[in-house]
Amino acid sequence: MIHNVGPVAFPIRNPRSYSNIFMATYTASWEEEKTGTPYSYRPAKEVHFQKTHSMPPQKSEIFKSLEGWAENNVLNLLKPVEKSWQPQDFLPQPDSEGFYDQVKEMRERTKELSDDYFVVLAGDMITEEAVPTYQSMLNTLDGLEDKTGVSLTPWAIWTRAWTAEENRHGDLLNKYLYLSGRVDMRTIEKTIQYLIGCGMDSKFENNPYCGFIYTSFQERATFVSHGNTARLAKEKGDIKLAQICGTIAADEKRHETAYVKIVEKLFEIDSDTTVLAFENMMRKKITMPAQLMYDGEDYNLFDHYSAVAQRLGVYTAKDYADILEFLVERWGVDKLTGLSSEGRRAQDFVCGLAPRFRKLEERAQERAKKYATIPCSWIYGREVQL
Ligand SMILES: [Fe+2]
Ligand SMILES: [Fe+2]
Known about the structure:
Elements lengths: L1 E3 L25 H6 L13 E3 L8 H6 L1 H7 L25 H11 L5 H15 L1 H8 L15 H27 L4 H14 L9 H28 L3 H31 L1 H14 L16 H12 L4 H14 L10 H28 L4 E4 L5 E4 L1
Antiparallel strand pairs: 1-2, 3-4
Helix pairs in contact: 5-7, 5-8, 5-9, 5-12, 6-7, 7-10, 9-10, 9-11, 9-13, 10-11, 11-14, 13-14
Bound molecules: fe (ii) ion (FE2) (2 copies).
One fe (ii) ion binds next to helix 7.
């Protein structure tokens, strides 16, 4: 089933010249044309169509039959709350006498970190803060939904506990950024509100095969990017921030392990469907969860944030290709046997994609090199180089 939900977009009221640096093709929604009222909770980008419920209903049985396996192999990758870190473990203690001194020290430590770095860290935090969207998305996967909100299937338990673990990431980065005094919290908070209101164009198709491939990819991507913000903080002497980002990265790694294991199991019991889902997701390209971010000003905010992350080496096109290569290797995709002819075609496509992607990206980036700078609302409108 295909739902056509586009075009829905923000109208451009005061387009700034820099908005045109990247391919902006926005159109006013028909509601706006009729009423003149911008529907500012709508996606900032055109979302073309969504295919839904692409998994044949009988396949839900597979996930039902995997419940015992998930109980023993997936839920054990969650950390009990009592053994989990909490944001407060890394932040100045508000009831202590030394609170103000601790905040002062913290601000001193951030001095060596650039505005660019804070743009990326703010973007990472905003991405984490949209966790309500990600929980909703997981609950759209056929056969895995938390039907009551307190369901005791291992899939539902995982989704809730995963969300609860993830929620600490945004909390910690948010409080850190607030105390650092380096960013405009109000515009960041607006961006979070817009982003959660806009949702996410996951292209899961409600299909758990696609969903778990996406989450495997995505958790590894966040592991890489938090790992890199940790490395950069360490290089500039902010050991505490390095510890914060490193601790979050370690959670992402554990989550990656869980999702990768699920897909490994799917390859084991239903390799044809799994390889086709892998091909499907890679053909569409894994889009980042915060792609629809908007701050009320910059219609290409996500592209700009990604460009800075790419330039700083926090998350790059090379990382994308590396993740793909890692997953192909980890799931032994090139060694799968007994596939249908369609499955074999998907296998060839997926196995040959990373080198092709690398070449295309290198060329695209050469062409895209513009060294433009743009004002960024998250750092009080100061310029940031793309
Ligand atoms: Fe996270
Ligand atoms: Fe994560």
